[in-house]
Amino acid sequence: MIIAIASGKGGTGKTTVAVNLTLSLDNVQLIDCDVEEPNSNLFLKLKLERAEDVSIQIPVIDEEKCTHCGKCSELCQYNALAVLPDKVMVFKELCHGCGLCQMACPQGAITERDRTIGIIEKAEGEIEFLRGVLNIGEAMSTPLIKRLKEKMNREKTVILDVPPGTACPVIEAISGVDYCLLVTEPTPFGLYDLRLAVELCKELNVKFGVIINRDGTGNQDTEDFCNEQGIPILLRIPYDRKIAELYSKGIPFVREMPEWRARFKDIFRKIERVETEK
């Protein structure tokens, strides 16, 4: 089973839920897909090793063959190519590696080369762990997330720590999962972004439920929204000083508060029942 942990905004406790759920289950693989800021291992403290570089293909122009017809620039949807009278400029940071320019070039003047955008690191121990690390200043995280998902171990329960928001990296991470846990907080900002995340899950036809973090703060609007929409609230994590102190020390709270393991296991059982009812 593949379970994504997502949120419409950052800072709601998404990684907290992903790590504590992972540590509460057996035979599990955790993949940190938040490649711009992967922080799951701040809590796990695993010894990581470099697994592979991840690259995309970008165009290389043979100026001797190029007639500067402009076909490549015309077809590029990302403005990664600019055709001048005597030169073609390639803006590698804008290129999405789709290869359309190469296919469309009537002179065969375009080849491709690898451009590394990030790396994948891994660790094995109590759990199987993978994370992507996007290069500093790199704009495109989606290809790295896609490569991470190709390494999912279908013989285990797979937990995906998804990037925040509802943009392309989130769509890539959530697509095709069995269930999505949406982590939110009982505040106006939390509710606004939860609405966006709910619409995304519906659009992708992904089953989902909600975890309310920092329960006891804010107001009842988030809970009222879930009740009105028939969205299951699978867990409430209270605004608790001990949980906050453990978090500040980089300690998953299930390790110091073992009663929470049973609550996270109960979430998993509920998701299993949803899958059985399909």
A few lines on this structure:
This protein has 11 helices and 11 strands.
CATH superfamily placement of the largest domain:
P-loop containing nucleotide triphosphate hydrolases
Distance between the termini: 13 Å
Topology as H/E string? EHEHEHEEHEEHEHEHEHEHHH
Structural class: alpha/beta
Molecular structure report:
The chain folds into 2 domains: 197 residues, 3-Layer(aba) Sandwich (Rossmann fold); 61 residues, Alpha-Beta Plaits, CATH 3.30.70.20. The strands form 2 sheets. A 9-stranded mixed sheet has the order 3-6-7-2-8-1-9-10-11, with helices on both faces. α5 runs parallel beside α6. The radius of gyration is 22 Å and the shape is elongated. It is of the alpha/beta class and 278 residues long. It starts with a strand and ends with a helix.
Task: Summarize the helices and strands and which ones pair or pack.
Elements: E1 2-6, H1 14-24, E2 28-32, H2 41-44, E3 49-61, H3 71-75, E4 81-84, E5 87-90, H4 100-104, E6 110-124, E7 128-134, H5 142-149, E8 157-161, H6 168-174, E9 179-184, H7 188-203, E10 208-215, H8 221-229, E11 233-238, H9 241-248, H10 253-256, H11 259-276
Parallel strand pairs: 1-8, 1-9, 2-7, 2-8, 9-10, 10-11
Antiparallel strand pairs: 3-6, 4-5, 6-7
Question: What descriptive keywords fit this protein?
Answer:
278 residues; alpha/beta; Rossmann fold; Alpha-Beta Plaits; 2 domains; 9-stranded mixed β-sheet; two-stranded antiparallel sheet; 11 helices; 34% helix
